[in-house]
Each structure stands twice: as structure tokens, then as C-alpha cells.
Specification:
The structure is a single chain. Helix content is about 0%, strand content about 50%. The chain is mainly β and about 130 residues long. The strands form two sheets. Strands 2, 4, 5, 6, 9, 10 and 11 form a seven-stranded mixed sheet that branches.
């Protein structure tokens, strides 16, 4: 079983930066595609970023492209989301997700395909 826990959420001003972390326990990160999603109050869950199990491939939503960077360290069983130039519309609960994908080093975008989820961490950006 993979257990995920996010950390790093905070209340910041527009233009600031934050770094979120997702740590796994129970099993190693090896061969798990990982993703970050967010959900603002009253809105649907939104894809943010994804990374293949080896870190070779990454993919971002148009809303965060150029501002956010996803990375992973399989030795430490962690996945990070560096968020720069934050905007008020980035305000949401951010969750990480994992999918076991040993046969293909590709990104996974759909939340329906992910098997494991963390509880989420709140990011609030004030104007």
C-alpha cells in the first residue's frame, strides 16, 4: 500500500513562491506515476502537473505552465511542486496522487486513473 502526505501549504501574497512536498510511506515510489491536482471552493478538481515514474516526462496544465515545476526524488520517496509567481486563482487545496505504472514511463493526467491520494494541503494566495 502507498500512503501519501502533502506538506508546504501556506497563505501568501500574489507573486510569492511556495514549494509543496508529497511523501510516500509503505512502499517505494519506484514505478509510480505521480500527479498534483487542486480544488478550489465550489469548483471541480483540476489537474495541475504530472511526472512519469523515472522523472523523464512531465506535463502541466495551461494555467500553471511556466510557473510551476514538478520534480521527484525516488531515493527519498518524495515529489515536489515548486510554485512561482503565484496568483489568487491558484488558491485551492492541493493533493498529490500516485498510480502504479511499471510498464510505461509516461505521465498520467486523468484523476480517474490514479489509485492513491493524499489528504491535501491548503494554498491561499492574496492579491
Amino acid at each position: 500500500q502507498v500512503r501519501l502526505e502533502e506538506s508546504g501549504g501556506a497563505s501568501v501574497q500574489a507573486g510569492d513562491s511556495l514549494r509543496l512536498a508529497c511523501a510516500s510511506s509503505g512502499r517505494a515510489f519506484s514505478f509510480y506515476a505521480m500527479g498534483w491536482f487542486r480544488q478550489a471552493p465550489g469548483k471541480e478538481r483540476e489537474f495541475v502537473a504530472a511526472i512519469s515514474w523515472s522523472g523523464y516526462s512531465t506535463y502541466y496544465s495551461d494555467a500553471v505552465e511556466g510557473r510551476f515545476t514538478i520534480s521527484r526524488d525516488n531515493t527519498k520517496n518524495t515529489v515536489s511542486l515548486q510554485m512561482n509567481s503565484l496568483k489568487p486563482e491558484d488558491t485551492a487545496v492541493y493533493s498529490c496522487a500516485a498510480k502504479y505504472l511499471p510498464g510505461s514511463d509516461v505521465v498520467v493526467i486523468s484523476p480517474l486513473e490514479y489509485e492513491y491520494w493524499g489528504q491535501g494541503t491548503q494554498v491561499t494566495v492574496s492579491s
